[in-house]
Design goal:
8-stranded antiparallel barrel, mainly beta, 153 residues, Porin
């Protein structure tokens, strides 16, 4: 069996427009719904716009880790639509997250931020995305998260 390899699909910068906090729920310490504004993704395999209106049903777990749960619609520069869903884990010290929440840019080596992504499209050109798994390595900046998204080969 061969070791997996990876290929960069794109980098996506997600800008947040608003947040609604639901408070503590049976699933975690804090459920928060972040909505997205129109943003960009750029890469060697596809580029375009993250359509406004997607959201992250982010959960702060009882152990302090964040669990993103995202639904986003991508619109490629060549006019195709792709649904992207992902979940992941973001964890680090309380001091690091306090700095992030204050809007400071924190070195991503100071925390763990990874996602597993899937895609869905009716596009013939991008239909290959329906049959791949992807992962992302993220950094949390003041305006929102930035991910490098890789296809697992």
């Amino acid at each position: 069996m061969s070791d997996p390899s990876f290929e960069l699909l794109f980098q996506i910068k997600i800008e947040l427009s608003s947040a609604v906090e639901l408070g503590q729920t049976p699933y975690g310490q804090l459920r928060r719904v972040d909505s997205f504004v129109e943003s960009r993704f750029e890469g060697p395999r596809l580029s375009g716009t993250l359509v406004a209106g997607g959201n992250d049903l982010r959960l702060t777990r009882f152990d302090g880790a964040f669990h993103p749960d995202v639904r986003a619609l991508l619109h490629t520069d060549d006019d195709h639509h792709i649904q992207m869903t992902y979940e992941g884990i973001r964890s680090g010290s309380e001091e690091v997250w306090s700095r992030v929440e204050r809007g400071e840019d924190v070195d991503p080596s100071k925390y763990y931020f990874r996602i597993a992504a899937r895609f869905e499209t009716g596009s013939e050109k991008y239909g290959w995305l329906n049959r791949v798994l992807a992962f992302g390595s993220g950094v949390r900046l003041q305006g929102g998260p930035v991910y490098d998204i890789y296809q697992v080969l």
